[in-house]
Amino acid sequence: REKVGTLSTVNVHLPQDAEKVLRAEGPLPQRMATMPWIVHRRTRNHKCGIFLLNGKEWLNDRIKMNQDVLSPSGADHFIPLLNTICQDFVQYLDVRIRRNVRQSFTFNLRPYVYRFTLEASVYALYGERLGLLKSSPNPDGLRFIQAINSMISSTSLLLYTPVNLSRLMYSKMWEKHFEAWDYIFQFADKCIQKIYQEMCLNGSPQYSGIMAQLMAKAELSLESIKANMLELTAGSVDTTSFPMMTTLFELARNQDLQNALRKESLEVEAHLEENPAKLIKELPLLRAAIKETLRLYPVGLILHRYLDRDTILQNYRVPAGTLVQIFLYSMGRSPEVFPQPECYDPSRWLISNTDQENNQISNFRYLVFGFGIRQCIGRRLAEAEMILFLHHVLKNFQVETLCKDDLNLSFHFVLQPKSYPLFTFSVLN
Fold it and tell me: Where would a tag sit more exposed on the chain, N or C end, judged by fewer CB atoms within 10 A?
Protein backbone atom coordinates (compact mmCIF):
# COMPACT_ATOMS: atom_id res chain seq x y z
CA ARG A 1 0.00 0.00 0.00
CA GLU A 2 1.26 3.49 -0.87
CA LYS A 3 0.08 7.05 -0.35
CA VAL A 4 1.51 9.93 -2.40
CA GLY A 5 -0.14 13.23 -1.55
CA THR A 6 -3.87 12.61 -1.78
CA LEU A 7 -3.44 9.46 -3.91
CA SER A 8 -3.78 6.14 -2.09
CA THR A 9 -2.96 2.93 -3.98
CA VAL A 10 -2.21 -0.76 -3.62
CA ASN A 11 0.79 -1.88 -5.70
CA VAL A 12 1.46 -5.35 -7.16
CA HIS A 13 3.99 -6.78 -9.61
CA LEU A 14 3.44 -10.55 -9.82
CA PRO A 15 1.44 -12.03 -12.74
CA GLN A 16 -0.91 -13.96 -10.45
CA ASP A 17 -1.85 -10.75 -8.63
CA ALA A 18 -2.17 -8.87 -11.91
CA GLU A 19 -4.61 -11.53 -13.11
CA LYS A 20 -6.78 -11.14 -10.00
CA VAL A 21 -6.83 -7.35 -10.40
CA LEU A 22 -7.71 -7.47 -14.09
CA ARG A 23 -10.37 -10.14 -13.57
CA ALA A 24 -11.96 -7.76 -11.04
CA GLU A 25 -12.03 -4.70 -13.30
CA GLY A 26 -15.73 -5.09 -14.07
CA PRO A 27 -17.65 -4.44 -17.31
CA LEU A 28 -16.62 -0.76 -17.40
CA PRO A 29 -12.93 -0.68 -16.39
CA GLN A 30 -11.74 2.65 -15.01
CA ARG A 31 -8.32 4.25 -15.44
CA MET A 32 -6.70 6.91 -13.30
CA ALA A 33 -7.49 10.35 -14.74
CA THR A 34 -4.83 12.29 -16.68
CA MET A 35 -5.89 15.61 -15.19
CA PRO A 36 -3.75 18.04 -17.26
CA TRP A 37 -5.43 16.74 -20.42
CA ILE A 38 -8.91 16.78 -18.87
CA VAL A 39 -8.45 20.36 -17.62
CA HIS A 40 -7.55 21.46 -21.15
CA ARG A 41 -10.63 19.76 -22.63
CA ARG A 42 -12.97 21.28 -20.04
CA THR A 43 -11.47 24.76 -20.34
CA ARG A 44 -11.63 24.74 -24.15
CA ASN A 45 -15.01 22.97 -24.21
CA HIS A 46 -13.62 20.02 -26.19
CA LYS A 47 -14.86 16.45 -25.90
CA CYS A 48 -12.69 13.76 -24.32
CA GLY A 49 -11.69 10.60 -26.15
CA ILE A 50 -11.59 7.06 -24.83
CA PHE A 51 -8.20 7.51 -23.14
CA LEU A 52 -9.78 10.07 -20.79
CA LEU A 53 -13.35 8.78 -20.61
CA ASN A 54 -14.83 6.25 -18.20
CA GLY A 55 -18.22 4.59 -17.88
CA LYS A 56 -20.88 4.15 -20.56
CA GLU A 57 -19.66 7.08 -22.66
CA TRP A 58 -16.26 5.39 -22.89
CA LEU A 59 -17.85 2.07 -23.87
CA ASN A 60 -19.99 3.68 -26.57
CA ASP A 61 -16.98 5.34 -28.25
CA ARG A 62 -14.76 2.32 -27.76
CA ILE A 63 -17.14 -0.12 -29.45
CA LYS A 64 -17.52 2.18 -32.46
CA MET A 65 -13.75 2.62 -32.85
CA ASN A 66 -12.59 -0.97 -32.38
CA GLN A 67 -13.38 -2.09 -35.93
CA ASP A 68 -11.21 0.52 -37.68
CA VAL A 69 -8.39 0.80 -35.14
CA LEU A 70 -7.94 -2.48 -33.27
CA SER A 71 -9.44 -5.27 -35.38
CA PRO A 72 -7.23 -7.34 -37.73
CA SER A 73 -9.32 -6.24 -40.72
CA GLY A 74 -8.89 -2.59 -39.74
CA ALA A 75 -5.13 -3.09 -39.43
CA ASP A 76 -5.00 -4.63 -42.91
CA HIS A 77 -6.13 -1.26 -44.26
CA PHE A 78 -3.58 0.98 -42.53
CA ILE A 79 -0.56 -1.36 -42.65
CA PRO A 80 0.24 -0.48 -46.32
CA LEU A 81 0.34 3.21 -45.32
CA LEU A 82 2.84 2.42 -42.55
CA ASN A 83 4.89 0.33 -44.96
CA THR A 84 5.16 3.28 -47.35
CA ILE A 85 6.60 5.47 -44.58
CA CYS A 86 9.09 2.72 -43.64
CA GLN A 87 10.30 2.54 -47.24
CA ASP A 88 10.64 6.33 -47.38
CA PHE A 89 12.59 6.35 -44.10
CA VAL A 90 15.05 3.73 -45.33
CA GLN A 91 15.53 5.65 -48.58
CA TYR A 92 16.04 8.88 -46.61
CA LEU A 93 18.72 7.25 -44.43
CA ASP A 94 20.32 5.47 -47.37
CA VAL A 95 20.95 8.79 -49.12
CA ARG A 96 22.56 10.21 -45.98
CA ILE A 97 24.78 7.16 -45.52
CA ARG A 98 25.96 6.90 -49.14
CA ARG A 99 27.28 10.45 -49.00
CA ASN A 100 30.09 9.14 -46.79
CA VAL A 101 33.07 7.43 -48.37
CA ARG A 102 32.91 4.58 -45.86
CA GLN A 103 29.24 3.96 -46.63
CA SER A 104 28.43 4.36 -42.94
CA PHE A 105 26.89 7.07 -40.77
CA THR A 106 27.35 7.58 -37.01
CA PHE A 107 24.59 9.70 -35.51
CA ASN A 108 22.02 10.32 -32.80
CA LEU A 109 19.11 8.20 -33.99
CA ARG A 110 16.47 9.76 -31.74
CA PRO A 111 15.37 12.78 -33.85
CA TYR A 112 15.20 10.62 -36.98
CA VAL A 113 13.05 7.95 -35.33
CA TYR A 114 10.87 10.62 -33.76
CA ARG A 115 10.21 12.10 -37.19
CA PHE A 116 9.47 8.65 -38.55
CA THR A 117 6.96 7.74 -35.83
CA LEU A 118 5.07 10.99 -36.20
CA GLU A 119 5.07 10.78 -40.01
CA ALA A 120 3.83 7.17 -39.87
CA SER A 121 1.18 7.72 -37.21
CA VAL A 122 -0.24 10.86 -38.80
CA TYR A 123 -0.39 9.15 -42.21
CA ALA A 124 -2.26 6.13 -40.78
CA LEU A 125 -4.60 8.24 -38.65
CA TYR A 126 -5.29 11.24 -40.88
CA GLY A 127 -4.06 10.20 -44.33
CA GLU A 128 -1.76 13.25 -44.27
CA ARG A 129 1.98 13.49 -44.94
CA LEU A 130 3.88 15.90 -42.67
CA GLY A 131 6.97 16.05 -44.89
CA LEU A 132 9.37 15.11 -42.08
CA LEU A 133 11.41 12.61 -44.11
CA LYS A 134 12.94 15.12 -46.49
CA SER A 135 16.39 16.70 -46.58
CA SER A 136 14.61 19.95 -45.64
CA PRO A 137 11.71 18.90 -43.37
CA ASN A 138 8.43 20.78 -43.63
CA PRO A 139 8.43 23.63 -41.02
CA ASP A 140 4.79 22.89 -40.13
CA GLY A 141 5.75 19.27 -39.45
CA LEU A 142 8.62 20.37 -37.20
CA ARG A 143 6.25 22.71 -35.36
CA PHE A 144 3.91 19.76 -34.82
CA ILE A 145 6.80 17.79 -33.30
CA GLN A 146 7.54 20.71 -30.98
CA ALA A 147 3.89 20.80 -29.91
CA ILE A 148 3.84 17.06 -29.16
CA ASN A 149 7.12 17.31 -27.21
CA SER A 150 5.87 20.32 -25.27
CA MET A 151 2.59 18.60 -24.43
CA ILE A 152 4.34 15.43 -23.19
CA SER A 153 6.98 17.26 -21.12
CA SER A 154 4.43 19.57 -19.48
CA THR A 155 2.11 16.64 -18.76
CA SER A 156 4.84 14.83 -16.80
CA LEU A 157 5.47 17.92 -14.65
CA LEU A 158 1.79 18.66 -13.94
CA LEU A 159 0.46 15.12 -13.57
CA TYR A 160 1.03 14.44 -9.86
CA THR A 161 0.29 17.87 -8.37
CA PRO A 162 -3.33 18.75 -7.45
CA VAL A 163 -4.76 20.98 -10.18
CA ASN A 164 -5.70 23.92 -7.94
CA LEU A 165 -2.21 23.99 -6.45
CA SER A 166 -0.31 23.47 -9.71
CA ARG A 167 -2.23 26.24 -11.49
CA LEU A 168 -0.92 28.63 -8.83
CA MET A 169 2.61 27.24 -8.66
CA TYR A 170 3.18 26.41 -12.33
CA SER A 171 1.11 28.94 -14.28
CA LYS A 172 3.75 29.22 -17.04
CA MET A 173 3.78 25.45 -17.44
CA TRP A 174 0.00 25.42 -17.79
CA GLU A 175 0.27 28.08 -20.51
CA LYS A 176 2.81 25.92 -22.31
CA HIS A 177 0.55 22.87 -21.96
CA PHE A 178 -2.50 24.68 -23.34
CA GLU A 179 -0.56 26.23 -26.24
CA ALA A 180 0.72 22.79 -27.27
CA TRP A 181 -2.72 21.18 -27.18
CA ASP A 182 -4.29 24.13 -29.00
CA TYR A 183 -1.83 23.72 -31.88
CA ILE A 184 -2.49 19.97 -32.03
CA PHE A 185 -6.25 20.61 -32.13
CA GLN A 186 -5.79 23.13 -34.95
CA PHE A 187 -3.98 20.46 -36.97
CA ALA A 188 -6.86 18.01 -36.45
CA ASP A 189 -9.40 20.64 -37.49
CA LYS A 190 -7.52 21.20 -40.76
CA CYS A 191 -7.46 17.45 -41.44
CA ILE A 192 -11.19 17.12 -40.77
CA GLN A 193 -11.99 20.00 -43.12
CA LYS A 194 -9.78 18.55 -45.85
CA ILE A 195 -11.24 15.05 -45.54
CA TYR A 196 -14.79 16.43 -45.49
CA GLN A 197 -14.18 18.46 -48.66
CA GLU A 198 -12.69 15.44 -50.45
CA MET A 199 -15.61 13.25 -49.39
CA CYS A 200 -18.09 15.84 -50.69
CA LEU A 201 -16.27 16.01 -54.04
CA ASN A 202 -15.26 12.39 -54.58
CA GLY A 203 -17.04 10.27 -52.00
CA SER A 204 -14.79 7.63 -50.38
CA PRO A 205 -13.31 5.68 -53.32
CA GLN A 206 -10.19 4.43 -51.53
CA TYR A 207 -8.80 4.06 -48.04
CA SER A 208 -7.15 7.24 -46.77
CA GLY A 209 -6.63 6.70 -43.06
CA ILE A 210 -8.55 5.87 -39.91
CA MET A 211 -10.15 9.30 -39.48
CA ALA A 212 -11.67 9.21 -42.96
CA GLN A 213 -13.14 5.76 -42.25
CA LEU A 214 -14.73 6.96 -39.02
CA MET A 215 -16.11 10.05 -40.75
CA ALA A 216 -17.54 7.98 -43.61
CA LYS A 217 -19.35 5.69 -41.16
CA ALA A 218 -20.67 8.69 -39.20
CA GLU A 219 -21.33 6.57 -36.09
CA LEU A 220 -19.48 9.12 -33.93
CA SER A 221 -19.80 12.90 -33.91
CA LEU A 222 -17.00 14.90 -35.54
CA GLU A 223 -16.01 16.18 -32.10
CA SER A 224 -15.70 12.63 -30.76
CA ILE A 225 -13.70 11.53 -33.80
CA LYS A 226 -11.35 14.49 -33.41
CA ALA A 227 -10.90 13.87 -29.67
CA ASN A 228 -10.03 10.23 -30.21
CA MET A 229 -7.68 10.88 -33.13
CA LEU A 230 -5.78 13.44 -31.05
CA GLU A 231 -5.39 11.02 -28.15
CA LEU A 232 -4.13 8.36 -30.55
CA THR A 233 -1.67 10.88 -31.99
CA ALA A 234 -0.42 11.91 -28.56
CA GLY A 235 0.01 8.29 -27.54
CA SER A 236 1.69 7.07 -30.72
CA VAL A 237 5.05 8.85 -30.74
CA ASP A 238 7.14 8.13 -27.64
CA THR A 239 5.37 4.82 -27.12
CA THR A 240 6.78 3.45 -30.39
CA SER A 241 9.98 5.48 -30.93
CA PHE A 242 11.50 4.44 -27.60
CA PRO A 243 10.93 0.65 -28.07
CA MET A 244 12.29 0.80 -31.63
CA MET A 245 15.49 2.54 -30.48
CA THR A 246 16.01 0.23 -27.50
CA THR A 247 15.47 -2.82 -29.73
CA LEU A 248 18.14 -1.53 -32.12
CA PHE A 249 20.40 -0.81 -29.13
CA GLU A 250 20.09 -4.39 -27.87
CA LEU A 251 20.64 -5.79 -31.37
CA ALA A 252 23.68 -3.55 -31.85
CA ARG A 253 25.11 -5.13 -28.67
CA ASN A 254 24.29 -8.62 -29.95
CA GLN A 255 25.32 -8.98 -33.58
CA ASP A 256 24.49 -12.70 -33.75
CA LEU A 257 20.89 -11.99 -32.79
CA GLN A 258 20.78 -9.08 -35.24
CA ASN A 259 21.97 -11.38 -38.04
CA ALA A 260 19.33 -13.97 -37.11
CA LEU A 261 16.60 -11.34 -37.31
CA ARG A 262 17.97 -10.08 -40.63
CA LYS A 263 17.96 -13.63 -42.01
CA GLU A 264 14.32 -14.05 -40.96
CA SER A 265 13.34 -10.75 -42.61
CA LEU A 266 15.11 -11.52 -45.88
CA GLU A 267 13.60 -15.01 -46.12
CA VAL A 268 10.08 -13.74 -45.51
CA GLU A 269 10.54 -10.73 -47.79
CA ALA A 270 11.37 -13.00 -50.71
CA HIS A 271 7.82 -14.36 -50.95
CA LEU A 272 5.73 -11.70 -49.20
CA GLU A 273 7.18 -8.51 -50.66
CA GLU A 274 3.89 -7.17 -51.96
CA ASN A 275 1.79 -8.02 -48.90
CA PRO A 276 3.01 -6.15 -45.79
CA ALA A 277 -0.11 -7.08 -43.80
CA LYS A 278 0.75 -10.76 -44.22
CA LEU A 279 4.49 -10.15 -43.81
CA ILE A 280 4.22 -8.86 -40.24
CA LYS A 281 2.49 -12.10 -39.20
CA GLU A 282 5.41 -14.17 -40.52
CA LEU A 283 8.22 -12.71 -38.37
CA PRO A 284 8.06 -14.62 -35.06
CA LEU A 285 11.61 -13.83 -33.94
CA LEU A 286 11.16 -10.11 -34.60
CA ARG A 287 7.87 -10.13 -32.71
CA ALA A 288 9.62 -11.90 -29.83
CA ALA A 289 12.41 -9.30 -29.86
CA ILE A 290 9.87 -6.49 -29.51
CA LYS A 291 8.21 -8.34 -26.63
CA GLU A 292 11.58 -8.75 -24.96
CA THR A 293 12.33 -5.05 -25.42
CA LEU A 294 9.02 -4.10 -23.82
CA ARG A 295 9.67 -6.50 -20.94
CA LEU A 296 12.91 -4.67 -20.07
CA TYR A 297 11.80 -1.20 -21.17
CA PRO A 298 8.02 -0.84 -20.72
CA VAL A 299 7.05 2.60 -21.98
CA GLY A 300 4.27 2.83 -19.42
CA LEU A 301 5.69 1.76 -16.06
CA ILE A 302 2.33 1.11 -14.45
CA LEU A 303 -1.08 -0.28 -15.39
CA HIS A 304 -3.90 1.29 -13.33
CA ARG A 305 -7.24 -0.26 -12.46
CA TYR A 306 -9.99 0.46 -9.93
CA LEU A 307 -11.34 -2.75 -8.40
CA ASP A 308 -14.99 -3.43 -9.18
CA ARG A 309 -15.30 -5.84 -6.24
CA ASP A 310 -13.45 -6.87 -3.08
CA THR A 311 -10.37 -8.88 -4.06
CA ILE A 312 -7.83 -10.97 -2.13
CA LEU A 313 -4.23 -9.98 -2.97
CA GLN A 314 -1.36 -11.65 -1.12
CA ASN A 315 -3.80 -12.76 1.63
CA TYR A 316 -5.10 -9.20 2.12
CA ARG A 317 -8.67 -8.20 1.33
CA VAL A 318 -8.57 -5.11 -0.88
CA PRO A 319 -11.96 -3.36 -0.99
CA ALA A 320 -13.87 -2.47 -4.14
CA GLY A 321 -13.08 1.00 -5.45
CA THR A 322 -9.39 0.79 -4.55
CA LEU A 323 -6.90 2.00 -7.16
CA VAL A 324 -4.41 -0.81 -7.84
CA GLN A 325 -1.15 -0.21 -9.70
CA ILE A 326 0.46 -3.11 -11.58
CA PHE A 327 4.18 -2.31 -11.81
CA LEU A 328 5.24 -3.60 -15.24
CA TYR A 329 8.89 -2.54 -14.88
CA SER A 330 9.26 -4.53 -11.64
CA MET A 331 7.45 -7.52 -13.14
CA GLY A 332 9.66 -7.57 -16.22
CA ARG A 333 12.87 -7.56 -14.18
CA SER A 334 11.80 -9.94 -11.42
CA PRO A 335 13.61 -13.32 -11.23
CA GLU A 336 10.38 -14.71 -9.75
CA VAL A 337 8.73 -14.09 -13.10
CA PHE A 338 11.53 -14.31 -15.68
CA PRO A 339 14.66 -16.51 -15.37
CA GLN A 340 17.80 -14.40 -15.82
CA PRO A 341 15.75 -11.21 -16.19
CA GLU A 342 18.83 -9.08 -16.90
CA CYS A 343 19.51 -10.98 -20.16
CA TYR A 344 17.99 -9.81 -23.44
CA ASP A 345 16.65 -13.11 -24.76
CA PRO A 346 13.76 -13.05 -27.29
CA SER A 347 13.69 -16.85 -27.37
CA ARG A 348 11.91 -16.85 -24.00
CA TRP A 349 8.77 -15.75 -25.90
CA LEU A 350 9.03 -18.44 -28.60
CA ILE A 351 6.95 -21.11 -26.91
CA SER A 352 4.20 -23.19 -28.46
CA ASN A 353 0.51 -22.41 -28.08
CA THR A 354 0.13 -25.64 -26.08
CA ASP A 355 2.77 -24.52 -23.60
CA GLN A 356 1.01 -21.16 -23.26
CA GLU A 357 -2.32 -22.87 -22.57
CA ASN A 358 -0.66 -25.01 -19.90
CA ASN A 359 0.73 -21.90 -18.21
CA GLN A 360 -2.10 -19.40 -17.89
CA ILE A 361 0.01 -17.11 -15.70
CA SER A 362 2.24 -16.48 -18.72
CA ASN A 363 -0.62 -14.54 -20.30
CA PHE A 364 -0.29 -11.97 -17.52
CA ARG A 365 3.48 -11.53 -17.82
CA TYR A 366 3.05 -9.32 -20.87
CA LEU A 367 0.70 -6.45 -20.13
CA VAL A 368 2.38 -3.48 -21.82
CA PHE A 369 -0.73 -2.94 -23.95
CA GLY A 370 -3.11 -3.59 -21.08
CA PHE A 371 -5.77 -6.28 -20.93
CA GLY A 372 -9.34 -7.00 -21.93
CA ILE A 373 -11.81 -4.48 -23.26
CA ARG A 374 -9.72 -1.56 -21.98
CA GLN A 375 -6.45 -2.68 -23.57
CA CYS A 376 -4.62 -0.07 -25.66
CA ILE A 377 -6.77 0.60 -28.72
CA GLY A 378 -3.65 1.59 -30.67
CA ARG A 379 -1.99 -1.77 -30.06
CA ARG A 380 -2.14 -3.04 -33.66
CA LEU A 381 -1.04 0.33 -35.00
CA ALA A 382 1.96 0.40 -32.64
CA GLU A 383 2.94 -3.24 -33.22
CA ALA A 384 2.69 -2.95 -37.00
CA GLU A 385 4.72 0.27 -36.99
CA MET A 386 7.50 -1.25 -34.86
CA ILE A 387 7.64 -4.53 -36.79
CA LEU A 388 7.73 -2.89 -40.22
CA PHE A 389 10.28 -0.27 -39.14
CA LEU A 390 12.69 -2.84 -37.71
CA HIS A 391 12.13 -5.21 -40.64
CA HIS A 392 13.07 -2.54 -43.20
CA VAL A 393 16.01 -1.18 -41.19
CA LEU A 394 17.55 -4.59 -40.51
CA LYS A 395 17.33 -5.83 -44.09
CA ASN A 396 19.03 -2.67 -45.38
CA PHE A 397 21.57 -1.69 -42.70
CA GLN A 398 24.07 -3.16 -40.29
CA VAL A 399 23.49 -1.46 -36.92
CA GLU A 400 26.34 -0.98 -34.43
CA THR A 401 27.10 1.01 -31.30
CA LEU A 402 30.20 1.58 -29.20
CA CYS A 403 28.04 1.84 -26.07
CA LYS A 404 28.01 -1.50 -24.26
CA ASP A 405 26.69 -0.28 -20.89
CA ASP A 406 23.06 -0.63 -19.90
CA LEU A 407 20.87 2.42 -20.47
CA ASN A 408 20.13 4.75 -17.57
CA LEU A 409 16.39 5.35 -17.55
CA SER A 410 14.11 8.08 -16.24
CA PHE A 411 10.35 8.60 -16.20
CA HIS A 412 8.81 11.62 -17.95
CA PHE A 413 5.18 10.54 -18.42
CA VAL A 414 6.73 7.62 -20.33
CA LEU A 415 9.94 5.69 -19.60
CA GLN A 416 12.94 7.07 -21.51
CA PRO A 417 16.75 6.86 -21.45
CA LYS A 418 18.48 9.79 -19.74
CA SER A 419 20.75 9.93 -22.79
CA TYR A 420 20.76 8.10 -26.10
CA PRO A 421 23.78 6.19 -27.44
CA LEU A 422 25.20 6.95 -30.87
CA PHE A 423 24.48 4.40 -33.58
CA THR A 424 26.48 3.55 -36.69
CA PHE A 425 24.44 2.45 -39.71
CA SER A 426 26.28 0.78 -42.60
CA VAL A 427 24.81 -0.06 -46.00
CA LEU A 428 24.45 -3.79 -46.67
CA ASN A 429 25.59 -4.81 -50.14
Answer: C
